[in-house]
Amino acid sequence: MIAIVDYGMGNVASVKTAFQNLGYQVTITDDIEELQHASHIILPGVGSFKAAVEEIRQRQLLEALQQLATEKPFLGICLGMQLLFERGYENGESDGLAIIPGTVEQIETDYLLPHIGWNQLQVALDDDEWNQFEGNHVYFVHTYQAVSESKYLVATTDYGTTIPAIVQKGNVYGMQFHPEKSSEVGVQLLKKFMELTT
């Protein structure tokens, strides 16, 4: 059973549908016991970093999510990926889940913000598992980006600057774009996550 974390700020329905279309059983929950019994944890998110952290804290999920990330395959999507990092600067400074070293800062680019639309993936690793996605287009909606060490980067995209698109640390993955809104490529990316972690 895949568990999608419900903290009031995620596009949980479309993420659930995407995994169900791949044949998986999915639950949407903020119940810690239910999360502990899941095989995989999915942390989606839409909105601001600060508000998301506040919601997670109010639901007493922060420490549970940090622990679950050490035990189970874990995927952060869009804002959910940003929350994996140590600190964010959207609407003031806030601590994140601190699962992956790094910060989340406003994109520094001459292009218009937010970064909205289809953009190409550039695979950062010479890795047969991910090379199939080189040059594929996925759908982004964000104004802030992760700033982290290159060893955590699986893929990037270019928007007048290099933006981390897929990150990984151990069993924890993050996708800055919306795979559930990225057509067949997004489906295949979710499938790849499940193949690598099952």
Biggest β-sheet description: 8 strands, mixed
Question: In what range is the share of β-strand residues?
Answer: 25-35%
Give the % helix: 25-40%
Rg computed from alpha carbons, rounded to a whole number of angstroms: 15 Å
Gap between N and C termini: 11 Å
The strand count comes to 14
CATH homologous superfamily title: Class I glutamine amidotransferase (GATase) domain
Major sheet: order of its strands? 2-1-3-4-14-13-12-9
Count of folded domains: 1
- Mean pLDDT across the residues is 96
Tell me the number of helical segments per DSSP (H or I, 4 or more residues long).
Answer: 6
CATH structural architecture = 3-Layer(aba) Sandwich
Describe the structure.
The chain is an alpha/beta fold. The chain has a single domain, classed as Rossmann fold, CATH 3.40.50.880. It is 27% helix and 33% strand. The protein has 6 helices and 14 strands. It has helices at residues 12-21, 32-36, 49-58, 62-71, 79-82, 183-197, and strands at residues 2-5, 26-29, 40-43, 74-77, 85-88, 94-95, 100-106, 115-120, 122-123, 137-142, 144-147, 153-158, 162-169, 172-175. The strands form 3 sheets. An 8-stranded mixed β-sheet has the order 2-1-3-4-14-13-12-9, with helices on both faces. A 4-stranded mixed β-sheet has the order 6-5-7-11, covered by helices on one side. The longest helix is centred in the C-terminal third of the chain and has 15 residues, at 183-197. The radius of gyration is 15 Å and the shape is globular. It starts with a strand and ends with a helix. The mean pLDDT is 96. Its EC number is 4.3.2.10, 3.5.1.2. Keywords: Amino-acid biosynthesis, Cytoplasm, Glutamine amidotransferase, Glycosyltransferase, Histidine biosynthesis, Hydrolase, Lyase, Transferase.
